[in-house]
Specification:
The protein is of the alpha+beta class. Helices cover 32% and strands 22% of the residues. It contains 13 helices and 12 strands. The protein has helices at residues 24-33, 35-39, 63-69, 85-92, 98-110, 131-148, 209-218, 236-240, 248-257, 274-279, 300-309, 313-319, 335-344; strands at 46-47, 56-57, 73-81, 116-126, 151-159, 169-180, 195-200, 264-269, 287-292, 324-330, 349-357, 362-365. Strands 8-10-7-11-9-12 form a 6-stranded mixed beta sheet. It is flat, with a radius of gyration of 22 Å.
Length: 370
């Protein structure tokens, strides 16, 4: 968090930063208003650093515990954004959930490596500081960090009115985690006979929103209207702004439950590129993943978008998660135990496929034809 600045009250001569449309005072006021949102995500690992230019975090607050948990710790880092989903948030005037999306898109990638999320940083670019909007965004980021079990230890708000139109903003996030090297996921561990589990998504998540917005425009859909085909009384805008599900807490608990046995041979976060474009990254060249799409029910929102946009099935599969947001490749004898644990942690789990000999491809069976 930046330190508090003291300035003269007298009006300066000549051009000022404020004349260019940038208010340092508004930025400082915003920073001062969000301290509690950061602190609510802090555990014993976070080191207090008032006025610091960067956040501080111990790898573990208990040295003996750290030595017990990690012999060869490796830091894992990633960066991601929310994309054009923010346009819908701006149109709806609802900004308190895209921050959750921002955390989710990062930590869901991080845990694929078997890592425990440690910390999170955000970058918010705006046309001008709007205290209420920015507070809602950071509140969502704070909520996401609480769900993921990581500490929000800082960030940056950039006011750039020559790059962003009034009321526009963009979000980026950065997450760091830690994993024991020998426990990190490795595609070479995947074997024929392994079973693929799919965890349900909460909806569209944060990929494909350029196409979503194209469908809305093409079909003249209304964000503030409820459509019976969606199977809910919520408006289309509310359905589309449903936050990306954060799988971090469930996956970290699951991995901790198997401290010795390596029952999970691979994982994948299903984002842009769909099942085929993400699960294949967890495979080596000697195996294929065979997916049965009839093993789970595709949420109504995807069929709604497909029908109103006249989108080809293959295009849908390439762009969207289609109801499965995260996958695990599991040793066959542990499938029941892993499923029970994940369901206990609040996940909706489906056996969606199996690993066979092959060439590193993902094969999806029983596609819907148009």
């Amino acid at each position: 968090m930046p330190s508090t600045r003291t300035r003269s009250k007298s009006k300066p001569k000549g051009l000022t930063y404020a004349d260019s449309g940038v208010s340092i005072e508004a930025g400082d006021k915003f920073v001062g208003s969000i301290g509690s949102l950061l602190r609510r995500t802090h555990g014993q690992r976070v080191i207090d650093n008032p006025g610091g230019f960067a956040g501080l975090l111990r790898l573990d607050y208990n040295e003996q515990l750290f030595k017990h948990n990690y012999k060869d710790p490796v830091l894992v880092a990633c960066a991601d954004g929310v994309g054009t989903k923010v346009h819908l948030a701006i149109e709806m005037g609802k900004h308190d959930t895209v921050g959750i999306d921002l955390v989710a898109m990062n930590v869901n990638d991080l845990i694929v490596q078997g890592a425990e999320p440690l910390l999170f940083l955000d970058y918010i670019a705006v046309n001008a500081v709007n205290q209420e909007v920015l507070y809602d965004i950071v509140k969502g980021i704070s909520d996401g960090c609480k769900q993921a079990g990581c500490a929000l230890i800082g960030g940056e708000t950039a006011e750039m009115n020559d790059l962003y139109k009034p009321n526009d903003y963009d979000l980026a996030g950065f997450s760091v985690g830690v994993v024991e090297l020998k426990k990190a996921t490795n595609p070479l561990r995947v074997e024929p006979g392994d079973v693929i589990l799919g965890l349900e998504s909460s909806g569209v998540h944060s990929n494909g929103y350029s196409l979503v917005r194209k469908v809305i425009k093409h079909a003249k859909l209304k964000l503030n209207k409820s459509y019976p085909e969606l199977g809910t009384d919520r408006t289309l805008g509310e359905v589309l702004l449903e936050p990306t599900r954060i799988y971090a807490a469930s996956i970290v608990k699951l991995l901790r439950a198997y401290k010795v046995k390596k029952v999970i041979s691979g994982m994948a976060h299903i984002t842009g590129g769909g099942m085929e474009g993400n699960l294949n990254r967890s495979l080596h060249d000697g195996v294929d993943a065979v997916i049965d799409e009839a093993s789970w029910e595709v949420p109504e929102v995807f069929r709604f978008l497909q029908d109103h946009g006249d989108i080809d099935e293959a295009e849908m599969r390439q762009v969207f998660n289609m109801g499965i947001g995260y996958t695990l490749i599991v040793r066959p004898t542990f499938v029941d135990g892993v499923t029970r644990k994940l369901e206990k942690y609040g996940e909706k789990v489906h056996v969606i496929g199996k690993i066979t000999k092959g060439k590193g491809r993902v094969k999806v069976r029983n596609r819907r034809s148009k």
